């Protein structure tokens, strides 16, 4: 088993337990708590919290409850973004990870509010650790109008807009904002938290940039390479709905090539760091290559 | 003119200018910036930022650009809550302050995202000042599942639920969470920011609790006392829609009496503080008494 797999098998249950326990104990209203937990505990890969923890590991920082809390705060924020993206007014998805989406299960107002509750709770968990001001600055920028929400806006604004279909610069920017920003923030917060040296910070952020970009291409490829059943959500949906992404821009073969180039780049960026666990995240892509 | 009116006339244009200028300069995408600014610049009274600044004034703290930025961060967050409350799945309001609501003007996805953008941007502005960790803790708790969003959830969950119509405890809690929490946070953040003594903090928080509670009663009373035109939004709407609030619980006369009692309480809480400006906020209620 690779160092990454050991790491993942060690920490995924710790993350899952922490999320389940603290959503139950820290949210006063049992119904809201249940609606929030339904989506948070829906079987996500915990990619972003694991990235945060793996970056701490790379920097030789011990992982304890305060670090788990920050990692889980990132997952709460990621889950909020999924719930809102699935809403009828947005991507209008009925299923995610093989389960009904929040608004299909609980109602639309409930889903909007579950997202609205997860975002500040996630920021609160992140803000309670050391380096609070810097971490809050990184996370709020990553998910705000110049980050994730900005990307989602470009997405809805450009859906069925033929004029951006061939615009690689626009598509790159949209995908970076939608997905890359929060991935980079997960690594960057760990670098700041563990007080990485300047040279370590540069390497880690470059790694995060390549990984974040590659992850969106991977996510688009999964959509066509896997069947709907395996991916746990409606696949082949982007093209039907007039979505523009790297895949619709480049096609499958060229997307795979770009993904391979980004994997090489990301590995290069880890040179000179104790980056065995972080490099293992790139193995995730094997199934679409 | 009262000290409060001077204070309000001094600082309201400063708040308005700061909001307009920084939404334009700090949000990269011009369209999102415009959608966010449409609601932020829709003629709100700036009650919460003025409360933050007036509390600083009470504590003898100088007001400069860093303090204005925090005050405006609170207003961004308040505006996010209004945009989401007005959505079709929530209160389904077409007008607010005499203008089309965000989703009527720009579309539903755009309104959801404008709210989703204003919340982290507001927290970012608040987090950039001194006492960052404490202020972020106060604001995220105030607007999270145990605060404002929790109140909004109780509201939608209890609409047309006859069993809570006479439940004073439930209605008090719902109204406190929906409105009181963010008002209290505005005062509490100023107290922490200006390093108020323990005794000053207790007095200010008690004032904020009485003021926050009274403000919701006032807001419900405006709904029936003023005409739709004057209030700038649909009035008499709560009763028609099966909403439960202090007014539907107590009726107009008893609500007015409770409001008067709270005004007296709030004034008492300011005893021994340089609270002339803060006390002036209570004059706002004259028009419904």
From TrEMBL, chains A, B:
Domain of life of the organism encoding this protein: Bacteria
Key words, A-Z: Isoprene biosynthesis, Magnesium, Metal-binding, Transferase
Name the record gives this protein: Farnesyl diphosphate synthase
PROSITE patterns noted in UniProt: POLYPRENYL_SYNTHASE_1, POLYPRENYL_SYNTHASE_2
Coiled-coil spans in chain: none
Pfam families reported in the protein's UniProt record: polyprenyl_synt
Keyword Metal-binding: yes
Record's catalysed reaction(s): isopentenyl diphosphate + (2E)-geranyl diphosphate = (2E,6E)-farnesyl diphosphate + diphosphate
Cofactor entry: Mg(2+)
Species, as recorded: Lactobacillus helveticus
GO annotation, biological process: terpenoid biosynthetic process
Keyword Metal-binding found: yes
CDD domains documented for this protein: Trans_IPPS_HT
Similarity field: Belongs to the FPP/GGPP synthase family.
E.C. numbers: 2.5.1.10
Enzyme class: transferase
SUPFAM superfamilies attached to this UniProt entry: Terpenoid synthases (SSF48576)
GO molecular function: (2E,6E)-farnesyl diphosphate synthase activity; metal ion binding
